[in-house]
Amino acid sequence: MLSVSFFELKIWVHVCFISFRDMICLIRACKTAAEERAVIAKECALLRDAFKEDHQDYRHRNVAKLMFIHMLGFPTHFGQMECIKLIAAVSFPEKRIGYLGLMLLLDERQEVLLLVTNSLKNDINNSNQFITGLALCALGNICTAEMARDLASDVEHLLQSNNAYIRKKAALCAVRIVRKVPDLIESFIDPAIRLLGDKHHGVLISGVKLCIELCQASDVALEQFRKVSTNTEGNKNAGHAILYECVQTIMAIEAIGGLRVLAINILGRFLAFPDNNIRYVALNTLVKVVSIDTQAVQRHRATIVECVKDSDISIQRRALDLVYNLVNENNVKVLTKELVEYLKVSDPEFKLDLTAKIAALVQKFSPSQRWYFDQMILLMVQAGQFVAEGVTRFLVIVISNASELQGYVVRTLYRSFQDWRGQESLAQVTVWCIGEYGDLLVNHSNELQGEDPQTITESDAVDVVETILKDVQVTPITQAFALTALLKLSSRFPQCTECIKVLLSGYKRSHILELQQRSNEFESIITRHSSISTSLLERMPPLDVDGSSSAMEADAGVHTNRTNLQQPSEALSPKNMNSSAQAEEFTVNLLDVLSFQPIENPLSPPVSAGDALLNLLGSNASTLPSHRESLIDLDPGVLPPHRVSPLDKTPNDQDLGNPPMPVKPELAGVFPTIVALQTDGLKVTFDFAKPPGSPETTIIKASYTNLSSRLYTDFVFQAAVPKFMKLQLNPASSNILPPDGSSPVTQMISVNNILYGQKPLIMRLRITYKAAGRNVLEQVQVNDFPAGL
Question: Any idea where the GAE domain is (predicted)?
């Protein structure tokens, strides 16, 4: 008879016969943390006693309970040996629980792992593929350097197994071995290359992961992949898959220039294949790498442009994105010509994207103002109905700033309008220019060399406006442009005043309230106040460009990073154009020391009244929002502030309907430049300026210079100030820092010190970027700002 005490029997019955599911339900039924701890403590005590009694039939169930307790965060070290006993068992269910417990309850720092090496070796060579898979999985998770050296030869042998399941597991296990013991890399190079030709997708993916690990750690492996890339047959899908994975591997490890060029050339060959899937994959990859090696991608420019003309819309859009990133100052004329030619025959659903991209490229890389105007007019002639409002607005602003070319532009628009086919944008720009510069059109002022001579009378100019007004297909916005142009022409062409009155009177009973109001007010100016109409209707001053080019970028489909569309060429404006929109407002706590404040514009625009015109038209001076409101009813983009109309989105509302953007102060040398941060690879400098009349506001121009020989990507600058300051960050000119300090990145920062004169300026900086694929974080607090800020 067995001598078993009642207490031992009670423990054995409770631990061995209560199921795993019942234990989970018991723990989950606890209503407090203390009750849960009590239940788990009791279960752990019973498990300890059960382990001492060595009940083999229920060992796997007890280890499963132990793993659940471990996942709840309670100590379970007393059950580690039970896992090793389960691994030594014969049956698969026990081994499965044992290996799972080994990976969950132990790590590579445990000395008890030395006891597992022999069991792993036996299970790796087991005839049951699932037992072999368990052993490889465990080795890949908790392998130590000693275990890697002992079992590397067995894993290498399994890489050549006939079983795809085992090859996949062995490849992932080899990744861990290579990381632990780099000396074993050479023994895995040849098996890894053979895996790239495997037909099983799981094996192929695992093999690529192993290849990436090998290439990151060994130059010898890189040379082997060069051979694979050049010798692989690319006429079959298997060859395409191998070549594509080689390309992905080369790009992922940021390889040397020669290998990168080889990878891009492989993608270039893919573009010549008739299979749309292969071409789309190639285009998608080239879009990602074009910023890394633009010159290598430029060699395939002709093939990429042909892809824009493909019948597949997905190929068209991807190729267009790639062309957009390939254009520079040297090839802008050639590529723009090809894109405009294709615009004539492209599908209507594709023309909207194509026109937006062409307009953005012309703005960004225009070699001269005259070329810019020629291309924009040609674009409006070819696809005027697809030109976005932001593009039209920016063109009008640039024309207003190009005083020497205004006559040329209005004459070119007049010639182009002779073939007008209802293009809305062309009509709007044409009537605006005729209204502003009609005298230059008739008098042939500022004619350029090579310009075709033409005779234009005052009535011819008025006829253009009349043609647009009487076209039943034009929108009310364009009709408002035309009415404003007629008012301007009444001052420039006195002989046509009666004809203009007749045209204006035709809209005095228009069912569109805005057109009716303009018609009556404009006729009042011409009829009753002719003595002041000349000064009232003089030419518009140069318009501000702030915010207009950023709206154009949005129309071009530039979404997140804003680095691809740089500032407009200086040839487009007599002054520096800032095309960056203001940074999005946000509030965060940075480093628990300083916090961002809600961003407010520290530069308040002045407000003045246009009393003469307001009294003239019976308006209230208190509602005037801008210093140029003296022209409030002369432009179709401005509406009375008390109501909403679709006409308030015309090109001039940047300057007349809304408060003007403050003029950016020049960064004068009053305050010395300081070095805010300098490390071995990065230098940050600040230049300062004070806008006139706002001593509490400081404009900072931050310059970021990469001092290393490596390219920095994903550059993000963040700053924080105390609560008595207001901070405004504009987007940086780029998020890529070229190496060797060749081209610093700049960013404008505005700080408004509410306690100016009482507390000095202080700022906490946080900078992140990627160097050689690694994330780098730089933090510093700047206290040494110059006095007077």
Answer: 669-786
